[in-house]
Amino acid sequence: MTPSKGDAPNLAPVESMLRALTLSSTSARTREDIFTAPSQWQPHGRVFGGQVMAQAALGAMHTIDAERIIHSLHGYFLRPGDIEEEITFSVDRIHDGRSFSTRRVQAYQKGQPIFSMIASFQDEDPGLDHQATMPEGIPDPESLPSAAEVLQGINHPAADIWAKTRAFDLRHHPSSVYVSVDGQPIAHQAVWMKALGRLPDDPNMHRAALAYASDFSILEPVMRAHGVSWATPGLKVASLDHAMWWHRFHRADEWFLYSQESPSARGGRGLSLGRIFAQDGTLVASVAQEGMVRVPQ
User: Taking the model in full, what pTM does it have?
Assistant: First the structure.
């Protein structure tokens, strides 16, 4: 079913996300596996990048035995997607080895690629084991305000979207950058996140949901470093590429800390790096993204 701008906003946020992350297999096939999926409603009419990335990851997962787990993806956002159009995903089974498998996924609308990704999968094997430590001094998520609490009373359409339509609870430290940047400009932040409702027990759905959520705030350290909020008139932000590495399993409907920093911005582009930790300090995943960040002079 093709989504419409009229009825999709009426879905609960988690239900809307799960609807988008339910891929349908088609009978069309050459040497690739073909899937289709709808998009979530967005006020600007463009597909959310985290959505198409999570869908592409799931498409690749559907062609792999459950024992072989996704450990990395590298994707490029090529064109803005249209929420009114279904997305078609073609999965190329590039390689299946004794321990690793590789898949290439292309997402299409109207015959044009909008997202391109390569993902790698591996059997669970014993080996060396270490991890970075979780940042210290971050308050517990329950002590920080949610987006709905931060934006309460702000009469602006964007505030209503941020507060009520996302499938994840986001709680920023030291503060959010929705309407202003408090304190001194710094190129790092931390965001507690979890899905707003219970997700299915399928581990691959949780891995895909982490990829989905990893695109929400990853470019905010670029903005924070220059005192730029989402409410800045004329601000233009778009994801260009995204890489993610899954290290250890974690449910996306339980709190995780997304620690983010930006080492560089230049030429209208900003780079951000992120680490995702479970609440007990376990390093779950690492993320890197470069995005377009243009601020009117």
Answer: 0.94
